[in-house]
């Protein structure tokens, strides 16, 4: 499911000539799902409560994504 969400976001942003997406964020009444690429064959997804602030989450997620890319080569 997460790969499908990222693929749909890629298709949409490329068709709108906005380049590749850095991340996707899905918000609902009960929580948020945030996804980002972590290399050519990996995705990093997190789920949060609906009231979670995204500032620090996005910073730490970017750092974790870079570490995963390095580990996976």
Written description of the protein model:
The protein has 73 residues and is α+β, with helices and mostly antiparallel strands. The protein has a domain at 23-73. The chain has 2 helices and 3 strands, in the order H-E-E-E-H. The chain has helices at 2-15, 55-72, and strands at residues 23-27, 32-37, 43-48. The protein has a 3-stranded antiparallel sheet, with helices on both faces. It is globular, with a radius of gyration of 13 Å. The two termini are 24 Å apart.
Number of helices: 2
Number of strands: 3
Can you tell me the residue ranges where pLDDT is under 50 for at least 5 consecutive residues?
Answer: none
Q: What proportion strand?
A: 15-25%
Strand order of the largest sheet: 1-2-3
C-alpha geometry? globular
- Content-based structural category: alpha+beta
What's the topology here?
Layout: H1 2-15, E1 23-27, E2 32-37, E3 43-48, H2 55-72
Antiparallel strand pairs: 1-2, 2-3
Which characteristics define this entry?
single chain, alpha+beta, 73 residues, globular, 23% strand, 2 helices
How is this structure best summarized?
The protein has 73 residues and is of the alpha+beta class. It is built from 2 helices and 3 strands; from the N terminus they run αβββα. It has a domain at 23-73.
């Amino acid at each position: 499911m997460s790969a499908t969400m990222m693929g749909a976001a890629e298709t949409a942003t490329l068709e709108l000539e906005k380049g590749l997406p850095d991340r996707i964020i899905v918000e609902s009444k009960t929580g948020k799902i945030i996804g980002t690429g972590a290399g050519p064959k990996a995705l990093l997804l997190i789920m949060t409560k609906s009231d979670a602030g995204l500032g620090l989450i996005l910073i730490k997620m970017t750092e974790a994504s870079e570490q995963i890319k390095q580990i996976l080569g």
